[in-house]
Design brief:
The chain is built from eight helices and no strands. By secondary structure, it is mainly α.
């Protein structure tokens, strides 16, 4: 049953990829929902947050994804206010690299370190989402990208929780983290 739910969540998350970035002529909720699903950088970072959070103890399991979504909305708000963030694309690419490394090394940072780290990277993602908004309503667009982000976090979380606690599964998780980190390094031009 868990595997069917995880598969359904993955397929639902992937279905929007074909709709994202067509020129941003569609305004509102649907374009906001499609944006995180269509860019490999956003997609991997948000799946990685869920994968990472699922392996953390206690409240970190929900606080990291929730903190990401809230900080991402704050980043969009900064964009709406005209506040520029430096190196937004590099910040997004760095998030892919760092989240991948956290998974690859099975890191367990204290919440006092991991939450600000996740939130700082989320500001870049939110700022980029706002920059791609076009003439859409900020509220509808933000609702769309926040919901898509939660779906991606949930998908990553379910994948991680679905995998058994065996050495083989741990190796697969670490390999996935290394793949995500490698993609981040390529995006950074490292």
């Amino acid at each position: 049953m868990k595997s069917r739910f995880a598969l359904a969540a993955i397929l639902a998350a992937a279905s929007g990829a074909a709709l994202a970035h067509p020129g941003h002529e569609t305004a509102g909720f649907l374009s906001g929902f499609a944006h995180p699903l269509g860019g490999l950088d956003h997609l991997l970072a948000m799946l990685a947050v869920g994968l990472y959070a699922a392996r953390q103890p206690g409240a970190a399991r929900w606080m990291l994804p929730a903190g990401f979504v809230l900080a991402m909305l704050a980043g969009a708000g900064l964009g709406a206010l005209g506040v520029a963030l430096p190196a937004v694309e590099a910040g997004i690419a760095a998030s892919v690299l760092v989240f991948g490394l956290l998974i690859a090394f099975a890191a367990r940072l204290p919440l006092a370190a991991s939450l600000p780290l996740v939130a700082a990277f989320a500001l870049f993602h939110g700022h980029a989402h706002h920059a791609e908004m076009g003439s859409a309503s900020l509220a509808a667009y933000a609702l769309g990208f926040a919901l898509a982000t939660m779906l991606l976090h949930g998908t990553g979380y379910l994948i991680a929780r679905w995998m058994p606690e065996t050495p083989v599964a741990q190796g697969i998780r670490r390999a996935l983290g290394a793949l995500v980190a490698g993609t981040g390094a390529v995006l950074l031009g490292v």
